[in-house]
Design goal:
The protein contains seven helices and seven strands; from the N terminus they run βαβαααβαβββαβα. It has 201 residues and is of the alpha/beta class. The strands form two sheets. It has a five-stranded parallel β-sheet with strand order 2-1-3-6-7, with helices on both faces. A two-stranded antiparallel sheet has the order 4-5.
């Protein structure tokens, strides 16, 4: 049995988010295929993820004890490291990620929990896990002249790799804000692509 952490980072309602329309459909299919797996949904807006304060940073760099698991910040890092698979669903905003997702990453990137320092440098403690990133983009960034502007998925891949997660796939729902496009058709194509990798996730 696997534990799946479904991380959602969009203030829109599920039915209004083009990203969630695809990722929610994938999660439903995953649950049908893996009824014994535990899927935990973490809606970052409902969680009230915020920017780190001085006292939060002190706790992050302080000693980790049995009480650390109940700490309002550190608990997210423990939850993250204990998962086997990750599904991240977030729109492409201003060439990158929603700020709340970056704030969450600051919550989970904790030395001694999700990575550690060694004599040869930092080493991720989340090895052997899988990640799937769903992202909707108004334009086209997978190829063409705008490729170099894409800094959201690229950042997530590097960060997850830093934590030890190198099995990382992306379902990009592209061009949804282009004039004259059939958005439903784009979403349906993305759903088909995600279903094609369901077997191996």
């Amino acid at each position: 049995m696997s534990k799946v952490l479904y991380i959602k980072a969009n203030p829109k309602k599920d039915e209004d988010s083009r990203t969630f329309q695809v990722s929610d459909a994938f999660v439903k299919s995953y649950k049908d295929k893996h009824p014994n797996d535990e899927v935990v949904t973490l809606d970052l807006y409902e969680e009230g993820i915020d920017f780190l304060r001085q006292e939060d940073i002190d706790s992050m760099f302080g000693p980790k004890t049995s009480e650390s698991r109940n700490h309002p910040i550190l608990k997210y890092a423990y939850q993250f490291v204990e998962a086997d698979k990750y599904i991240i669903s977030a729109p492409f905003w201003n060439l990158g990620l929603p700020a709340i997702l970056k704030a969450y990453i600051d919550y989970i990137s904790i030395s001694g929990i999700t990575f550690k320092y060694t004599e040869s440098g930092p080493v991720g403690m989340c090895t052997g896990k899988k990640a799937l990133h769903f992202v909707s983009r108004g334009g086209h960034y997978l190829e063409g002249p705008a490729t170099g502007f894409e800094m959201g998925d690229r950042y997530l891949r590097v960060l997850f790799g830093f934590l030890g997660i190198v099995d990382f796939e992306t379902i990009a729902i592209e061009g949804v804000d282009m004039i004259g496009v059939d958005v439903d058709q784009i979403i349906n194509r993305a759903k088909k692509r995600s279903n094609a990798i369901l077997e191996d996730f």
